[in-house]
Amino acid sequence: MFVIKFHLRRYFQILNLFNPLLSTACNIMKHFILRYNFVSSFTVTFQLTFIKA
């Protein structure tokens, strides 16, 4: 039982170490996805206006 507790504590320490890295990676991915969506929608509207003109 003690060994299991120790392993769980070690596991949670590793998780706490990796948690900020994971959150920053998720934020970067969200940022890039939002920027990509904005750019793609902008290009679509630009193409539509260009075709109309």
Q: Overall mean pLDDT score? A: 79
**Secondary structure: number of strands:** 0
Q: Give the low-confidence spans.
A: none
Largest sheet: none
Strand-pairing-aware structural class: mainly alpha
Gap between N and C termini:
74 Å
Strand content: under 5%
- With helices defined by DSSP (H or I, 4 residues minimum), what is the helix count? 1
Determine Rg (CA atoms, Å). Answer: 22 Å
Looking at the structure, what is the overall shape?
A: rod-shaped
- Determine the oligomeric state from the structure: single chain
Give helix and strand order, one letter per element, not per position: H
Helix amount:
over 70%
